Amino acid sequence: MSGPHPTGLHRLAETIAARKGADPETSWTAKLLAKGPEKCAEKFGEEAVEAIIEAVKGDRAKLISEAADTLYHLLVMLAARDVTLSDVENELDRREGRSGIEEKASRK
């Protein structure tokens, strides 16, 4: 978590983690997670495509809305595979200060 005041993404990630054991009948997040990682990944992909469409169309408000949906579904997909937002942040920290070209080359 980043600092004493968690960001909106951290609060959302914490809520998603808390919903992992919730009743799928009362929680949309629990319902998604109960369907398994593959379904969570599918939903993330659908939302990402919707965000892409709005980016191409140029509708700022709709893009913001779809981006929020995409981030939510990314966090759900990560939670389905027991990957935390902190895990992703650690990877970003590891990459910081390296050029994208250099970083991509190091993965080959």
Structure write-up:
By secondary structure, this protein is mainly α. The protein has one domain: MazG-like (Helix Hairpins). The protein has helices at residues 8-19, 28-34, 37-57, 60-80, 85-95, 100-106. α1 (8-19) crosses α4 and α3 packs antiparallel against α4. The longest helix has 21 residues, at 37-57. It starts with 7 loop residues before the first helix and ends with a helix. The mean pLDDT is 92. Residues 91-108 have a biased composition (Basic and acidic residues). Pfam families: PRA-PH.
Topology of helices and strands:
Blueprint: H1 8-19, H2 28-34, H3 37-57, H4 60-80, H5 85-95, H6 100-106
Helix pairs in contact: 1-4, 3-4
What's the helix-strand series? Answer: HHHHHH
CATH uppermost class: Mainly Alpha
CATH fold node name: Helix Hairpins
Mean pLDDT figure: 92
Q: What portion of residues belong to β-strands? A: under 5%
Supply the CATH superfamily name: MazG-like
Radius of gyration, whole Å: 16 Å
Give the helix level as a range of percent: over 70%
Oligomer: single chain
Provide the descriptors you would attach to this structure in a database record:
about 110 residues; mainly alpha; Helix Hairpins; 6 helices
